[in-house]
C-alpha cells in the first residue's frame, strides 16, 4: 500500500492554518545556522518547554518509563523523564539540521563502524536491512551515514500536510531512494537490487501483520514485516546502533554483523529477537529513545489499556455520557 495523502500545493500553502508551521520552519532554519553546541543548547530548552506544553504526551512518557524501568525510584523516574525531554528537544533541532544543513556540516560530527559488513553484502549481491529503532534524529544520523555509504530510507506521512511535503522533499534530496513504510513492493525492489535500506519497525502497528513479543518483559505488538521481507528478498539483516555523544560531539553509529539464522521458522521468535536487540540498546542510553510513542498501545485480548485516552477522545466520551444522562 502506497501513500495516498494528497500533497498541499499552490496558494493553499499560504492558508492561515499553516502560518505557525511556516514560522516554526523559519525559526529552525535560523537555529541551524548556529554552531552545533549552541543548537543542542536551544534543543534542550525546547524540550523542557514541550514537557510543559503537552501534558498528555508527558503522561505517555511517564507511563512508558514506569512500565519499562519499575526498579527506579520516583526521583530517578523524574530525572530520566527530564533527560528524555532534553534529548527530544535536541532531536527536533538535529532533525532540522539533517533536513537542511549542507554536507560539510556533518563531516566532523559523527563516527561510523562496521562499513565492512555493507561491503561484504554488496560483493555477495545482497540487499541489506539496517535494523534500528527510533533513537535521536533519524535525519541527522542518516546524513552521517550518507557521508560514507549510499542508503535508502523509509518514511511515514505527517498529519500536517505542509510539514509532510517539506520534510519529504528535503529527504528526497539527500537519500538514494525514499520508501513509504507501507510500500512493500518498493522495499522488495530496493532489496532485490542490492540496496541498503534503513528500517525501524519498533512502533505499535496495530493488530495487522504483527505478533506479541516481549519488550522489557511486557507483551509488545511487533511487526512481522522484517521476517517477510527477508524471506522474499534474501537480504542480510544488520543491527544498526545510533548513539548521541555527550558534550555536543555528534553521533556514534555502528553497523553490526548480519544476524545469523535469520529469519527463523517462527515470526514470533524473530520478533522477540528484534525486541531483545532493541531493549539492549535502549538500556544503554534510555533518554535517547522516543518515549512519547504509545509503544504498548495494542494489548493482548483481555488485558487492560495502559494509557489514558487522548484528550479529544476523552472529551467526546464525556459529552456522549452527558447527553445520555439528560
Keywords:
48% helix, five-stranded mixed beta sheet, two-stranded parallel ribbon, 326 residues, Glycerol-3-phosphate (1)-acyltransferase, alpha/beta
Q: Could you walk me through the main structural features you see in this protein, from its secondary elements to its overall organization?
A:
There is one protein chain. The chain is an alpha/beta fold. It has a single domain, classed as Glycerol-3-phosphate (1)-acyltransferase (3-Layer(aba) Sandwich). It contains eleven helices and nine strands. It has helices at residues 19-31, 36-53, 55-68, 74-100, 115-123, 138-146, 161-174, 184-192, 225-233, 267-284, 311-325, and strands at residues 110-113, 128-131, 153-155, 178-180, 196-199, 210-215, 218-223, 236-244, 251-255. The protein is globular and about 65 Å long. The protein starts with 18 loop residues before the first helix and ends with a helix.
Largest sheet: 5 strands, mixed
Number of domains: 1
- The number of strands is 9
* Element-level helix/strand string: HHHHEHEHEHEHEEEHEEHH
How far apart the termini lie comes to 45 Å
Poorly predicted parts: none
Class by alpha and beta content: alpha/beta
List the helices and strands and how they pair.
Layout: H1 19-31, H2 36-53, H3 55-68, H4 74-100, E1 110-113, H5 115-123, E2 128-131, H6 138-146, E3 153-155, H7 161-174, E4 178-180, H8 184-192, E5 196-199, E6 210-215, E7 218-223, H9 225-233, E8 236-244, E9 251-255, H10 267-284, H11 311-325
Parallel strand pairs: 1-9, 2-5, 2-8, 3-4
Antiparallel strand pairs: 6-7, 8-9
Helix pairs in contact: 1-4, 2-4, 3-4, 4-6
Amino acid at each position: 500500500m502506497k501513500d495516498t495523502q494528497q500533497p498541499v500545493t499552490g496558494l493553499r500553502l499560504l492558508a492561515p492554518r499553516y502560518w505557525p508551521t511556516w514560522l516554526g520552519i523559519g525559526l529552525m532554519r535560523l537555529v541551524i545556522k548556529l554552531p552545533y553546541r549552541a543548537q543542542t543548547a536551544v534543543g534542550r530548552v525546547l524540550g523542557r518547554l514541550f514537557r510543559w506544553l503537552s501534558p498528555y504526551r508527558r503522561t505517555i512518557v511517564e507511563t512508558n518509563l514506569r512500565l519499562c524501568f519499575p526498579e527506579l525510584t520516583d526521583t530517578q523516574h523524574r530525572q530520566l523523564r527530564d533527560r528524555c525531554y532534553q534529548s527530544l528537544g535536541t532531536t527536533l533541532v538535529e532533525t532540522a539540521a539533517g533536513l537542511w544543513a549542507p554536507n560539510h556540516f556533518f563531516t566532523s560530527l559523527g563516527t561510523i563502524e562496521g562499513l565492512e559488513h555493507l561491503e561484504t553484502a554488496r560483493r555477495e549481491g545482497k540487499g541489506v536491512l539496517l535494523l534500528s529503532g527510533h533513537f535521536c534524529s533519524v535525519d541527522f544520523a542518516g546524513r552521517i551515514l550518507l557521508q560514507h555509504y549510499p542508503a535508502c530510507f523509509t518514511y511515514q506521512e505527517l498529519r500536517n500536510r505542509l510539514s509532510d511535503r517539506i520534510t519529504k522533499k528535503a529527504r528526497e534530496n539527500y537519500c538514494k531512494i525514499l520508501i513509504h513504510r507501507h510500500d512493500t513492493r518498493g522495499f522488495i525492489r530496493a532489496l532485490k537490487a542490492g540496496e541498503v535500506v534503513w528500517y525501524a519497525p519498533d512502533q505499535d502497528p496495530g493488530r495487522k501483520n504483527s505478533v506479541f513479543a516481549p519488550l522489557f518483559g511486557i507483551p509488545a505488538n511487533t511487526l512481522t514485516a522484517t521476517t517477510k521481507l527477508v524471506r522474499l528478498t534474501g537480504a542480510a539483516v544488520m543491527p544498526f546502533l545510533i548513539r548521541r555523544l555527550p558534550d555536543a560531539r555528534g553521533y556514534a553509529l555502528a553497523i553490526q554483523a548480519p544476524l545469523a539464522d535469520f529469519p527463523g521458522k517462527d515470526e514470533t521468535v524473530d520478533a522477540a529477537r528484534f525486541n531483545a536487540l532493541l531493549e539492549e540498546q535502549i538500556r544503554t542510553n534510555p533518554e535517547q529513545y522516543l518515549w512519547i510513542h504509545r509503544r504498548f498501545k495494542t494489548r493482548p485480548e483481555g488485558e487492560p489499556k495502559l494509557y489514558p485516552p487522548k484528550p479529544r477522545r476523552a472529551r467526546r466520551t464525556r459529552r456522549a455520557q452527558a447527553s445520555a444522562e439528560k
